[in-house]
């Protein structure tokens, strides 16, 4: 045993064997896996990387690496409202109405829901806080 350790130390400079190539191998990334991942994101840009991982049956980290290698990054959707000059009059009218309501009912503002996190429609509530799209 000591002879083998001495030989290993002289040949490699280390007692550890089998450490010739410590770089991570990307051989598990077959062209088909890469294509399947990109197809999944292409079909649904809002899909999560975990969903793609389950669909393609590869580790989540592989999905992230493939997307990063392809230059795809999650983009957080942010809705903004652009104001135009025609919006001034309705806003002033609303402010006057709101002040009238406060004059008649001092606790009126306690019964109003102020939010910028969700959109309420007839179809339900849409929260874009955690919505990400790959671009």
From TrEMBL:
Which top-level group of life is the source organism from? Answer: Eukaryota
Identification of the protein by name: Transposase Tc1-like domain-containing protein
Question: Can you name the source organism?
Answer: Araneus ventricosus (Orbweaver spider)
Organism lineage reads as: Eukaryota, Metazoa, Ecdysozoa, Arthropoda, Chelicerata
